[in-house]
Amino acid sequence: MSTNLITFLRKLLIAENNKNDITFYQSLFSSRNFRVLIATDSKESLRKYRAEMENAVAATISKKQIREKKEKKGLKSKDHFFVFSSPVVMPFDAVMLNHRVSDTDGIHVAKEILSINPHQRIVFVSESTKYTTELQNEFKEKVDVIQKPFYPEALIELLESAELYRALKDLGVNVQKIREANLYHFQLFDLLAACREILRENDGREKKDNG
Amino acid sequence: MTDAKKKTTDKVTGMVASSSDNRFPPDVVRQALDKALDNLGPRLKPVLWDLLEKECRTTSFRERAPTLLQLEVALKNVFGDTSYIILDWFLEELEKCRKDES
Are B36 and B75 in contact (CB under 8 A)? Predict the structure, then answer.
């Protein structure tokens, strides 16, 4: 990786009960700017998720903070103070779920987490093609699936949204500037979709004009 | 949330004072927008420039620069929730232009 790229610490929640896999993940992520929380069953996964969600909400800008910012800028309370986007509350960059999380199916945990936070990125580690198909049918594009066996680099690439960055680069977007914005996966996805839509509509208009 | 992400969130929220607070001369606004859109590359930039002019209901940004409010709304219409990234670049460039002028 180029040294002039800004790298951000990413946070993962891994639901895994296999000791060998836990050791593998810890060793893989420790040197890669990932902070990892491990949960060994579904209850612990959800408890840790909810706790981190509460912390993330508390850290998000409040109405009181907006009022303080206004005062700092010498604005009156009735003055406009634009908030370009609602602050994103995201306790983890990704939640990795195993096929079976000790006491229950990973699908149940994923559904619970998505009901708390629909934007949360979920990556399933699947152990069979049958389960992969089941996940794809259940969640469509809402979750990512990586099937065992996989190369460690493939998992890192998936978690770092490498495919989306490549697609943006193919459109000619300055990817380094995008990296500096430190977007979450769903934001990158939305940005790519918007860029593609703009070009698609423009191509349609040009064809109409020429035809 | 990492420090870097907190910083991003802070930058995202509340940087522009008011809709009428268009403190920058049209040339400066256009220059800042031009540079901000450079980040989207040569394919998207001209298309987006045209779209933004249309969204801001002006025949050309050469005749009338958009206000910050117009630009915010236009970008939101085009990019949805990710519009603040481009606005962030724009404001960064605007700040540079302002510093250059002073």
Answer: no
Chain B residues touching residue A182 (CB < 8 angstroms): 4-5, 8
Q: Strand, helix or coil at A183?
A: coil
Interface of B with A (CB under 8 A): 1-2, 4-6, 8-10, 12-19, 38-44, 47-48, 51, 68-69, 72, 78-85, 87-89
Question: By the CB < 8 Å criterion, does A6 face chain B?
Answer: yes
Q: How many CA atoms lie within 13 A of A12 on its CB side?
A: 25
Q: How far is the alpha carbon of A197 from chain B, nearest alpha carbon, in Å? A: 9
Tens of pLDDT along A123-142?
999 888 888 888 888 888 88
ipTM value of the model?
0.75
Residues of chain B contacting residue A8, judged by C-beta atoms under 8 Å apart: 2, 4-5
Contact A83 B12 (CB under 8 A): yes
pLDDT < 50 positions in chain A: 1-5, 80-86
- The contacts of residue A170 (CB under 8 Å, 6+ apart) are none
Strands A122-126 and A144-147: parallel
Residues of A in contact with B51 (CB under 8 A): 198
Cβ-Cβ contacts under 8 Å for A46 (sequence gap 6 or more) = A109, A112, A113
Per residue in B29-56, pLDDT (tens digit) is 888 999 999 999 999 999 999 988 888 8
Report residue B72 as tokens.
């915010």
Alpha-carbon distance of B36 to B39, in angstroms, equals 6
